[in-house]
Amino acid sequence: MIYTAENIAEILCAKATLQNANAIIEHLITDSRRISFPATSLFFALQTARRDAHNFIQEVYERGVSNFVVRTGFDTGAFTNANFIFVDDTLKALQNLAARHRAQFNYPVIGITGSNGKTIVKEWLYQLLSPGYNIVRSPRSYNSQVGVPLSVWQMGEENNLAIFEAGISMPGEMAALEKIIQPTIGILTNIGDAHNEGFKDRAEKLQEKLKLFKNCKTFIGREQDLAALDISNGILTWGSSNKNTFIISGVDKRKESTQLNITYKETVLNLFIPFTDNASIENAISCACVLLQLGIDKNIIAERMRQLQPIDMRLQLIHGINNCVVINDSYSFDINSLSIGLDFLLQQQQHAQKTVIISDIPSAQNSEPYEEVAAMLQARNIERVITIGEQWNHYQQYIKDKIAVTQHYQSTASFIEHFSANHFRNEAILLKGARVFGFEKIVALLEKKVHQTVMEVNLNAIVHNLNEYRSRLNKGVKLMAMVKAFAYGSGSAEVASLLQFHKVDYLAVAYADEGVELRKAGIHLPIMVMNVDEAAFETIIENNLEPELFSLNIFNAFISFLQKNGLQQYPVHIKLDTGMHRLGFEQKDLPALLPLLKGNHYIVVQSVFSHLAASEDPNEDTFTTQQSTLFEACCAQIREVLGYHFTMHISNSAAIFRRPELQYNMVRLGIGLYGVDSSNAQQLALQTVATLKTTIAQLRTVVAGDTISYNRRGKTTRDSLIATIRIGYADGFSRRLGYGNGKVFIHGHEAPVIGTVAMDMTMVDVTSIPNIKEGDEVEIFGKYIPVQQVAKWCDTIPYEILTGINQRVKRIYLEE
Ligand SMILES: *Cc1c(COP(=O)(O)O)cnc(C)c1O
Of 15, 710, 715, 783, which is the active-site residue? Predict the structure, then answer.
């Protein structure tokens, strides 16, 4: 199927100005940062409440894209050599084009929706069915109004089965997705109470989800979700009662597997799956029902279900040997997921040198995918590519023609045999391999060895939280992200790279050295430095950092420094003290400051700002208002002498949504980005960013009355099982958590600390926790124990806990 720009204008029934009507369109893009094949791409300028992609057309055009779908009336004057298609609604146009593309194919299309498990069911069906089918599926969890059309666009004549997931957050969205996916077989994984936002209740949510199955010949779901429906033709349910199409007659959990009996049309299918948790069991049943429905032989189903693999779709970013960063993306290998992995690699700007280690592509039937991979690697300027696998023997030339440095190995074992740590230094490395290649063994070689206490940082959660606050910003308000103190413990360079990618306007750090680290990591956003002293001036200027000037002394010293160095128009920020009484000019200092500002050509005042002392506290709202009134009065005086525009800002995380009238031109987002709502108002759906984990080093039984740890302050009252865990106060696990004040989370249970916390180790009482082993994982804070809870046990605030985690604790970055 080949489309030209002209075809697409016709399909969309749209006006167009075409400089090259025959331009071939192979790729649809909606994200200005994700361009691999500019010459054959069509850019849809989507508009959302937060972002208008028409603003990025210049950037996209400069990167070589010359086909655009834009809103009617867009001024194309500046782009002389491009094709423009004009529509009223660019998102609808994208969806319509995808729907038309979909309609050309007659092979079965499975559509999956539900509250949980969509991606896992999709990926498992792919595992279970790919031996017999050539499957096209949604990349990762591309299931939104934008993700679905991009997924469906991947359908081709070479495929004979498609599997797409559909996710919604508001009434009305599913009808649009149904038109694009046009599923012939449907799966409803489940309807949970989660994600109720946007829906009145569970019933409304169910009704909305069922719209996906409007034209399906059959759809499959749980008895309890569909019981209320008229179970007639085409609706197939599974459950324990005899009324179901698929009768689940036995669920027997063993140590590491579960046995399932499913009765379907008088035959009994006996299965083992290598999982024991309820969610996996449910997802496996959904998959088994689909396979039965497709008429696949019982023995084959049993054989393949036994080999189901866990799904971890997340990319892992790990600190590697010799100052490398390693991105582990070796869960599965297809072209779409490669492009996502490469984008993530390119975000790692701290290293100019990029290496990709890549396996054979199991689904490839001919040379084409290999050629395409080579082109993608070349398009992203990858310097070094290491290929692993026998298929690549035949296709080496594609890589050699396009990449500066190439190496090839027959197998993962052969790579490991020839491995030398010296070959990897100061670079970012992407490992992209199909599961059978066992790239985790390569990851283990490249990973820097440290002790087993790690802090996992969920990058998707940071982006989610960023957007949660962005959605609360008044129109035109800019956002400064606070990445001081190692980005509240999460790691400044990694977090700043992510924020830069997501186009925040400004960054702020406490000290000049923190700013230098960011510049070294390739951050080019403007960076404000808050805690400035004379010794830092040189560093500030060399690294193009912007100082906060907070007193007459520091102001005068900086001006004379600029004078001495022959610098003019240097960007600075003026800090006012309106009640915090930490740093800043007070109103009574203004008579001295204003004459110095007037006509001062050494500096440009980028912003004037102040800090709220108690924005999270409703009892202090009057004080907060007083602060803002004083702030406005001071700004007015400064404006008079400067005579030019400067940015005003006073709001921190809590103020952003508690006091929207105080957003002025910019806000400073700190703790909220890291998943903590300091006001505890729970109006925002923030996600947990940081998880601190360790492992059990040793288990011992101790008789009643014996004592544990230093000074014998932990006494057992019964015969006890005690676990020594690999974390202590030197890691940031406070001594205040000792003597039962704090708890940790193991195997679904809380275990109290017993005795004194030591420097590197802590003992916890695990007597009542079953099946515990040495080496088991222990959560200190994260999903199960919120960091706020740990803060409470320590009689402090989450800020102190997060920033107190020692740098020796390895940070691992996860991205979905
Ligand atoms: C740390 C800091 C912030 C961010 O505060 P949060 O409560 O973490 O949002 C804002 N402004 C200044 C001056 C800060 O020092």
Answer: 710
Among candidate residues 430, 449, 468, the one where a domain is terminated: 449
H/E run at residue 708: strand 707-708
CA of 216 to the centre of ligand 1 (A): 52
Looking at the whole model, is its pTM more than 0.70? yes
CA of 641 to the centre of ligand 1 (A): 28
Q: What are phi and psi of 411, to 5 degrees?
A: -155, 165
Residue ending a domain, among 640, 674, 708, is 674
Its domain, for residue 322, covers: 316-449
Ligand 1 mean position, distance from CA 661 (Å): 18
What is the pLDDT at residue 232? 67
Strand partners of residue 666: 478, 649
The reply to whether 743 belongs to the active site is no
3-state secondary structure of 26: coil
Q: Is the distance from the beta carbon of residue 678 to the nearest atom of ligand 1 less than 6 Å? A: yes
Q: Are residues 558 and 498 both part of a single domain?
A: yes
Asked if residue 525 belongs to a domain, the reply is yes
Q: Look up the CATH number of the domain holding residue 330.
A: 3.90.190.20
The CA–CA distances, whole Å, from 195 to 115, 168, 198, 449, 471 equal 7, 9, 8, 39, 18
Please indicate whether residue 792 is annotated as part of the active site: no
Domain contains 98: no
Q: Which residue has the least CA distance to atom 10 on ligand 1?
A: 652
Is 759 marked within a binding site?
A: yes
Distance from Cα 800 to the centre of ligand 1, integer Å: 13
Q: What is the CATH number of the domain that holds 765?
A: 2.40.37.10
Nearest atom of ligand 1 to the alpha carbon of 611: 13
Q: Point out the ligand 1 atom lying closest to the alpha carbon of residue 484.
A: 1
Give the chain's domain count.
5
**pLDDT reported for residue 682:** 76
Phi, psi of 146 (to 5 degrees): -95, -40
Task: Indicate if ligand 1 lies below 6 Å from the C-beta of 651.
Answer: no
User: What residues in the chain have per-residue pLDDT under 50?
Assistant: none
Same domain, 442 and 477: no
Are residues 224 and 334 both part of a single domain?
no
Helix (H) or strand (E) holding 608, with range, is strand 603-610
